[in-house]
Write a structure and sequence with these properties.
InterPro entries: Ald_DH/histidinol_DH, Ald_DH_C, Ald_DH_CS_CYS, Ald_DH_CS_GLU, Ald_DH_N, Aldehyde_DH_dom. 38% of the residues lie in helices and 21% in strands. Helix 9 links the parallel strand 12 and strand 13. The radius of gyration is 23 Å and the shape is globular. The chain binds nicotinamide-adenine-dinucleotide (NAD). The site of nicotinamide-adenine-dinucleotide has 31 residues, from helix 7 and helix 8.
């Protein structure tokens, strides 16, 4: 089955104070689909004055929203989840059109997972129990949690609705008002969501501002009228955002880049069985979902005893990946999200070859035919080399896996940790000792063992080192959006 490009209006607005509001300066930017480089629609090129309007709305709404009951807020989050679910296919198509990822991913993973995050945080807030203790016979010590106030959230383009759904639910359910800026490359699903839920929250509680980072993101992150900045994106952008927020002494959470190792020990090939098949899939499939995943297993580390035999199977599996029209339900690898990404990845392929990396698969753009000829497709690529090469060290954010071999556990750990980043990692082994000790030694916020890529709402997710700090998901997230007040009550 092949879906068609969804229909869009000619232009869209920001969502401020419960209404769709055109940009004050009247400027728009053109959003195009990476599938065929066709125009999608025009979106507001917001500036500081648009951000100020949203700040007025959010600040006016925060007192009343912060005083609503947890039950009331939880009910509204469930409502949002139901609305997205009702329109799941519409959201999936819009996401595929905007981002270029295959419809099978958006239909089966991105949007269902986004829905689950709304439900998860709706449930979390209801399961909380208060606590109080007696200091002495006449004094009660009681801690209460209060919202921070107004939250600025800035998100990237790689999982547009999912990143929004990692950010909005915990902030809203804890009683904060939010101004969220989607990435300029993928503004559509956030807009569609606002169209569907325009009346769900009181005016000013949720605001969406479109535009570019330096024009709309910077005034938002720099404002003294926000109480926290939650950011997901590149490490270098995160450094800028921290500078902006520090002027107001505002707390930040940083979900940044990665260069995740995926480590395969000899024992995965002890038998030719279902586990080995799963390991091959684990080396290949999660690296080649455009490679535009912050935890993309972009460094493949294979123990020398199995290197040749394992890589033979990995290469064969890679070459069997179906790349093509993202609207086709059989497509496994779609388009890169933008021309910038497309060019950046090709530049890294050139760098890799110049550094002496050997191309084991792909290694170039994939020129598709028909209307896809204008789209941004890169063949799934495997580069063989060593961990000091730039292609092993820098985040390419494309379907490019860099493979190297290691001798023993110590070398595997050393290579895995020889990176500025510490977001995700994979470890594959049948050895009970390695199952626990290798993940323990890897400096990363998430280690998958004998699996890769699941992002359940109840598992904390975030980075070590230059991959950021703070966590997303899990009930602990609630406290990233609250402050604690202690009351000492004498009676
Ligand atoms: P990016 O940093 O270029 O942009 C992210 C957002 O920041 C966009 O909305 C952009 O408009 C905004 N922005 C850019 N410059 C800004 C500025 N000066 N001031 C304020 N806002 C600004 O990142 P990207 O290219 O959109 O996304 C890819 C990156 O995101 C990768 O590095 C990836 O690893 C990372 N990522 C991390 C996670 C995680 O959870 N750790 C998840 C997804 C993506």
């Amino acid at each position: 089955m092949i879906y068609s490009k969804p229909k869009f209006k000619e232009k869209y607005s920001n969502f401020i104070n419960g209404k769709f509001v055109p940009p004050i300066g009247g400027e728009y930017f053109e959003n195009t689909s990476p599938i065929d480089n066709s125009l999608i629609a025009k979106y507001p090129r917001s500036q500081k004055e648009d951000v100020e309007l949203a700040l007025d709305a959010a600040n006016a709404a925060k007192e009343a929203w912060g005083n609503t009951s947890a039950t009331e807020r939880s009910t509204l989050l469930y409502k949002v989840a139901d609305i997205i679910e009702e329109h799941l296919e519409e959201f999936a198509l819009v996401e595929t059109c905007d981002n270029g990822k295959p419809i099978r991913e958006t239909l089966n993973a991105d949007i269902p997972l986004a829905i689950d995050h709304w439900r998860y945080f709706a449930a979390c807030i209801r399961s909380e129990e208060g606590s109080a203790s007696e200091l002495d016979a006449n004094t009660l010590s009681m801690n209460i949690k209060e919202p921070l106030g107004v939250i600025a959230q800035i998100i990237p383009w790689n999982f547009p609705l999912l990143m929004l759904s990692w950010k909005l639910p915990p902030a809203l359910v804890t009683g904060n008002c939010v101004i969220l800026k989607p990435a300029e490359q993928t503004p559509s699903s956030a807009t569609l969501l606002m169209e569907k839920i325009a009346d769900v929250f009181p005016p000013g509680v949720v605001n969406i501002i479109h535009g570019f980072g330096p024009e709309a993101g910077k005034p938002l992150a720099s404002s003294s009228r926000v109480d926290k900045v939650a950011f997901t994106g590149e490490t270098t952008t995160g450094q800028l955002i921290m500078q902006y927020a520090s002027k107001n002494l505002n707390p930040v959470t940083m979900e940044l880049g990665g260069k995740s190792p995926n480590v395969f020990f000899n024992s995965v090939m002890d038998e030719d069985d279902a586990f080995l098949d799963k390991a091959i899939e684990g080396a290949v499939l999660f690296a080649f979902n455009q490679g535009e995943v912050c935890t993309c297993p972009s460094r493949l580390l294979v123990q020398e005893g199995i290197y040749d035999a394992f890589m033979e199977r990995v290469i064969a599996r890679t070459n069997a990946i179906i790349q093509g029209n993202p609207y086709d339900v059989n497509t496994m690898l779609g388009a890169q999200a933008s021309n910038d990404q497309y060019e950046k990845i090709q530049a890294y392929l050139k760098i890799g070859k110049e550094e002496g990396a050997k191309v084991l698969a792909g290694g170039e753009a994939n020129k598709l035919s028909g209307n896809l000829a204008e789209g941004f497709y890169i063949k799934p690529t495997i580069l063989e080399g060593h961990n000091k090469m730039r292609v092993f060290q820098e985040e390419i954010f494309g379907p490019v896996v860099c493979v190297t071999k290691f001798k023993d556990e110590a070398e595997a750990i050393a290579i895995a940790n020889d990176t500025l980043y510490g977001l995700g990692a994979g470890v594959w082994t049948r050895d009970a000792h390695q199952l626990y000790q290798i993940p323990r030694a890897i400096k990363a916020g998430r280690v998958w063992v004998n699996c890769y890529h699941a992002y359940p709402a109840h598992a904390p997710f975030g980075g070590y080192k230059k991959s950021g700090f703070g966590r997303e998901n899990h009930v602990m997230m609630l406290n990233y959006y609250r402050q604690t007040k202690n009351m000492l009550i004498s009676y």
